[in-house]
Amino acid sequence: MFLMTIMLTSLMLNFTFMLSNHPMMMMFTIILQTLMICLLTGFISQSFWFSYILFLVFLGGMLVLFIYITSLASNEMFNLNMKYFIFLISFPMIVMFFFIDPYLFLPSSTNNDMLLLIENIINYGELDFSLNKLFNKSTNIVTLMLVLYLFLTLIMVVNITNIFQGPLRQKKN
Questions:
Q1: Across residues 99-121, what is the average pLDDT?
Q2: Structural domain harbouring 107
Q3: d(Cα 143, Cα 136) in Å, to the nearest integer?
Q4: Helices and strands (H and E) in the chain: how many
Q5: What is the pTM of this model?
Q6: Which residue has the higher pLDDT, 78 or 48?
Q7: 52 belongs to a structural domain
Q8: Mean pLDDT for the chain overall
């Protein structure tokens, strides 16, 4: 049931992101969405290391975006619309009704295969997911090449970027 709550919160955050119009609200929504995805991958896999690293990478990217957004749109005000809040409150309630009784919205003439499929989707937490296949001995070379490629890309971006000609440069008085 906890995994369903995380998935429902993640779905609600998706709609919040689509309805938000302020960059800071979008960034806050992305951070919360990352936290929910990291919790979900941590509970599905046997260890939280992958989700911890994923959260740190996303948080580092969000810090860069935060600096960029505050330099461009530092004094914009939030426009809060009540229609969006009513939608965000009513949507999880409708989805919770479906989780409480999944057969509520199905017609009575459905076949047994469809019911078994729905039960398997609802009870997917019993399945064994593993993210350890990414770091098996057979994929070590691919993982090492990916790490080296990202490192070289980082070095090239740092060398190409000029500190004095960007949105974060200091103003000349």
A1: 61
A2: 2-132
A3: 10
A4: 6, 0
A5: 0.56
A6: 48
A7: yes
A8: 75
